[in-house]
Amino acid sequence: MQRAAGALALVALLCAGCGSSVTRPRVEQALATTFTNLYVQQQEQAGRTEVSVPGLGTTASCARRSGGEGPGGDWACRLQFTAYDTPTSWVYELEVHPDGCFRADGPPDAGPEAFVDEITGARTPNALFQFDGCFDPSLGARP
Amino acid sequence: MSGALVVLRWELVKLGTQLRVRVVVLACLLGPPALALGLGLRLSGPPVDTVYGRYVLDSGPALSLLVLGFAGMWVLPLLAGVVAGDLFASEDAAGTWKTVLTRDRSRDDLFVGKVLAAVTAVVALLALLALSSLAAGLLLAGTRPLVGLSGQLIAPGRAVVLTLLSWLLVLPPLLGFTAVAVALSVLTRSSVAGVAGPVLLGLLLQVLSLVGGLGLVRHALLTTPFSAWHGLLTSRVALGSFLQGAVLCALHLAVLLPLARRALLRRDVAAA
Questions:
Q1: Which of A135, B52, B75, B79 could form a disulfide with B66 if both were Cys (CB 3.0 to 4.6 A apart)?
Q2: Inter-chain contacts counted by CB atoms under 8 A, chains A and B
Q3: Under an 8 A CB cutoff, do B238 and A136 touch?
Q4: Which of A127, A69, A59, A66 minimizes the C-alpha distance to A100?
Q5: Under 8 Å CB-to-CB from B257, ≥6 apart: which residues?
């Protein structure tokens, strides 16, 4: 029993630095997908149906300020997409959790405003200002 | 086997009379409606720090998923502890081992019956919490489409089904914590250790996985499978976390239950 616990602790110690479920491609792909889905929905709510998920061609490039990968609150991602023939680039701050979910915060000044006016004139929270998303953190998951 | 079923029935009756268990049943039943009432009356803003917290006023199933995400942190280990942590230790505390073992039930019947009672009660409590939170959420926010964890829109009917399935996916780690409670209850002979042990273990593992640079070791912690339901709600359904978690929980059951059973079978009751 004690020997097993000791072996387990040793493996844990040896393996503590050997990778994480939170990788850059997973974060980038999940952020780009989530943002694109939310963007298209928001445009549809505003009555503008000419944008589509593939049409935006969203790409994300992410990095941690402290370098490397893994969970943390210091991920920054640049999202680039083309809507209405205008290339656009927004930077989001991400807090990525060990369970594969993240919270994305838009920049208060340059990015999406806190509120958008819908056709009805009602003011609702801008779904792009702050949103959550998740990727598959399991062993051997894509990408 | 019929002996174990008799034990199961009696243990369930005994559980139903315990104040601690009744309080937990009431909390599972009334907690989610109270939360919905507070959110509906705008006593506090939506809890945006937890997944689905920001959508509780937009779509009914969101409240249930918020409760599920929160419950995985310490509520579900607590349910396991309250139900299973006392089952064996209470016989020590009351000095009733001699009495129950002199009946025509074998120790095996007794062990199997008590474990089955714990599993039955824990599953019932989980179902109660799931249905109560889903009903409260639907009353609060109605059946509008739910935003998925990839930002995709999920149709209302599908969202309700996925929410119920999400609750099913936490069953393996819940049973894992029930096994922890059973093992503590038998081995320590202390109700306090049996009831509080699983909660403390759950909190410890949560803290470890949040602060420690655990890397892939995180997949070996019994609390990790509590978030496997996220994979149901992304646009590309991912069951890898659930399957890996199920294997992990099965390993816990395969080690802890035989350990507890052997300890009970070998115990010298006459000398106690």
A1: B52
A2: 104
A3: yes
A4: A69
A5: B115, B179, B182, B183
What is the DSSP secondary structure assignment for residue B88, as one 8-state letter? Answer: T
pLDDT of residue A113: 58
**B210 inside domain:** no
Do B117 and B182 touch, CB atoms closer than 8 A?
no
Residue B247 lies in a domain: yes
Residue A136: its pLDDT value, please? 94
B212 located within any domain: no
- Could you read off the pLDDT of B194-245 as tens digits, one per residue? 999 999 999 999 888 887 667 788 889 999 999 999 999 999 999 999 999 9
Interface mutation vs chain B, best among A15, A23, A34, most B CBs within 10 Å: A34
Please state, in angstroms and rounded to a whole number, the distance separating the CA atoms of residues A50 and B30.
46
Q: Please write the tens of the pLDDT for every residue from B11-41.
A: 999 998 999 999 999 999 999 999 999 998 8
Q: What are the structural domain ranges in chain A? A: 21-137
Domain count within chain B: 1
In A, which residues are within 8 Å of B150 by CB distance? 30, 33-34, 37, 133-134
DSSP state of A121: -
Beta bridge partners of A96: A72, A102
Contact of A20 with B215, CB cutoff 8 Å: yes
Mutate to test the interface with A, among B52, B56, B152, B204 (most CBs of A within 10 A): B152
Query: Cα(B34)–Cα(B140) distance, rounded to whole angstroms?
Result: 11
Is residue B211 included in any domain, yes or no?
no
| Residue span of the structural domain in which B252 resides | 2-204+218-266
Model confidence, pTM:
0.91
ipTM of the complex: 0.88
